[in-house]
Amino acid sequence: MTIVLNICIYIFSFINFIKIGDVNNPPSENGYGKVTYEYSISETELTNECYCFFLNSVAKTYDPYNLYNPIMGEYFWGGIVRKTDSNGNFVYYVKPGFEKYPAIGITWNSAIRFINWLNYNWENIKNKKDITYYISETEGDDNHGAYNTQKYLNSSLHIKRNKGARFYLPNKNEWIKACFYNGKEYITTNQNLQIANCYTEDGWKYPYPHLLSSEKGTVSHYGTINQNGNLGEWIEDPFGTDGRNWKQFLGGSLIRPKYSLDINYTEGDAPDKSIASVGIRIIQLTASTTKQTPPTISYTPKHNTRLSQQQDEKWIKIGDIQNEGDLYNQFIGNVNYEYEISKYELTNEEYAQFLSAVCRYEDPYHLYNKNMEIGAIGGINKIKQNNGEYKYQAKQGWERKPVVYISFYDLCRYANWMHYGCPNTGKCTIGTTEGTATQGAYDTGKFGTKSKKSIRRNKGAKYFIPNRNEWYKAAYYDPTIQSKNKYHIYPTQSSTPPSFQEANYMIDNQLCIGPPFYVCNVDSFQNAPSHYGTLQQGGNVWEWIEDWQFNKYGHIALRGGSFSYTEYGLSSINEDPGGINDISYVFGGRLARISQDTGYIYIPMNGKNYYYYIISQFYQSPKKSLLILCCILIILSLIIFTIMLKFKSVIKNIIYTLQYLTNIIIWIFLKKKKALLPTNESRILYIPCDPWSVWGSRGDEAMIYASMKLLKEKHKTEQFYFITSTDKGITETQNRGYKAIKAWKGKSPIYHISQALRELNPTQVIIIGADCMDGYYSPDVSFTLMATADLCSSYNIPYHILGFSFNENPSWKVKLAYLFCSSAVRFNLRDYFSQQRFEHFTHKKSTLVADMAFLLEPNPNFYDFKEYQQWCQQEKNKQQTIVGFNFHPMLKKNQSIEEIHEACSSLADMIIHLLNQHSELSFLFIPHDNRGKLSDTIVLPIIANKIREKGYAQRIKEIKEVYHADEIKAIASLCDIMICSRMHLAIGSLSSGVPVMAATYQGKFHGLFKHYGLPEDLLLSPATFITKEFISTFERLLKEKKSLAKTLQEKQPEINILSAKNIEE
């Protein structure tokens, strides 16, 4: 081991480059492959020994960019391991025998950092210098290195190579030419298919560890090895045009079928994602002679998985007949009959019993695959007995683990066998594995015939593969959810990604189980079932379902994710494709059944569900359906208007809906206008979410001032414009020294805003998303903000939607608008949970940021501040703890005045109790909002007066005025702890290092606390905020205030970086 380590640290093997000539070659039929210059490309994929040397050069003390990730060592074909030496430094070494194997799991971001480092150190490599001479820099800017890693990384904008560097990641033209061009033409079907390392109908092409050494495999005309198969290879080009920041990788891989080797086949993924089947290859531009110098640029422990060995009933009854489908996901999950589904995935032990019962003599349908014995994750041995018959037996330790390497047809035949009562004839015939249109669960006579209809169970089937709705309902439906939509995002009764204690999947590039098993027993994670009690419908292995992926002909759908995939695979919105004959080390399944003697009988949905189903079909094809829907609505509106003239509210809603649809149509036409040319004059335009007052919300004000400071520095401008809808908004804006445009007006404000955009042609548009992008307050406002961003994208006007939150119950009208929004529009979500809800609801990609207000600078330079500062200092001199306090009177929607007064009285009683129990407490009452008839300035005096009546006047200080956002932040910083129910007061406190206890509303504070890693039990619902739980929660806050303050201080730099991302290009 020491020898291997020393080799890795002190010797860097040359990367052998092959010259690619034939300059000015023609492009291929797909338009790629033409290269007008000579270049060289590495003969092989980057090896473990090369990447290991790189890691020892740059990531010995720490690894801030996650250049190493655990799957490089834990995965069964991974070859690099990281250890920690006695000095606490990292040391990387190659597993014995894996030196020449390609390095896996390198992210696209890590690839360009490796290439930057390679450019800086090429002279050292050529001269075989000791590692101590190497420049340990991976970062680049516009003038240093091959790539600028300070701009656009993980953004939707394409990172272009710098001029003058020697080494780069290949672009698509360079890669395709090297792989497919033979000097005369493109060989689009690889000539080396017999040796290409791709997945076959029999499973793995090569023995364990299944990956080929970099020196073995296919050879191109120019001499590159394994450009086809083995590992996919990252290239420079972006993947897709939907606004995501994904990058392409080409060449297929050992887990992809042979069609992935075709010249037209492309895959893509996130640039910061580590994938076990993707590596890199490098190009060298021989014309470059510029010496590269680096710029001056100023391991989470693995969780232990607790696996439960408890057994329970195998079949779970799924009731709740005629349930509604998922309103936010195409109405999937509606099932109109009672059925049962297996609690567990199908095991090796169960499948081995099946094989022994039907394949003792021969296996005509290849129900057993050799990889079940020799492949990774395989758990079944095939044993030939003395009498010539075969028996099948689960490997020791693998009995209760899920069977893999089964195709969709294999699972159908297993269902037939179960349907027939598990006969033990040793043969695959009608009555055991085979069926007809009237016998068995599936008609196997149709297998292999081309049809746009997916394979469906027979009427009367007793056991069958669950279809999309059955599987989805069992995994995600929960009738106890207290909202209109009754579906979780994850199959663990949660809309938050599960931990390693709840599911077997990959978190932050770490495997949950790891070697040697990787998968866990099917009865694990008893603590994280679905509502009905199924286990591991998320993670472990993908599960076949009966439908085409997304109902589109070509690929059977798989659901649930696997041990080697991220939380996206577990989520309800994801559905992966599988060829109907594909087998894989991550493909398994489970069955469902009808316990009645009649077996399966289709039952149609009721009228209410049929209505929702029609709506879901509209969501799938919105543009084709919009005109039809508008016509229908107009006709229905006229009928309803005639019949129900006296019901004014009904007519009002119909008119409102028609106006909303009209605005969508206007917006669609506005998008067709020509893009604008950039202007030389810098001017910034703000689109507020409150165009009536503009400055009324202190939260909006905080975001405006924080962003304005950064924009002034960036654009060197003082010209700021604000869209408003009122004279009051104009006056207030002008009083602050800015210009106002009254463009949010009329029934169709988007039309007038479009005109303002085109006339002003601003340098930058800033849209204040806040909490107004989900339609909770106003679908019209949400639509206008989103549509404005879309118009900016269409008109070529730079824009940013400042990070917004997204609540648990968004308006369906907003979803209608998001359907027509361009995929190029960039959305910033200000907390993790909002991002999950937003992407689940809209199916749009987004960027996680932190609230812009975190960067607001406090302003203590106002007259009254000294008064509050002196009072706080006076109290602290008495060893008092200053508790900031605020109460939002409208935590619950539509509360009566009596209910608000009762809440104030309860809060006063609890503060009196705390003052009585803790003589060291003093309270500073801080109002944050004065809008409306019942604002903070109305309710806080009610609470304060009751406290004074009990004799505690000397220990409270009441602020009467609502100050500006930066002034409120200065006041908050005077406190030791804060109790509040205003999110931006919480942000001002947390960013000042003041621990917070809060009353939540619209699900906002949970994401805010997640940024800091704060305990969620410091958050109370509006109902519990005015109960005795207020006291116990405060006691905890008081006890832990020092440790919480330390956490805030440590986390704040990370959050500031996230906040600055709001206005990154």
From TrEMBL:
The chain crosses the membrane at residues 626-647, 654-670. It comes from the Bacteria. The lineage of its organism: Bacteria, Pseudomonadati, Bacteroidota, Bacteroidia, Bacteroidales. Residues 699-1001 form the Polysaccharide pyruvyl transferase domain. Residues 37-282, 338-554 form the Sulfatase-modifying factor enzyme-like domain. Pfam families: FGE-sulfatase, PS_pyruv_trans. Keywords: Membrane, Transmembrane, Transmembrane helix. This is Sulfatase-modifying factor enzyme domain-containing protein.
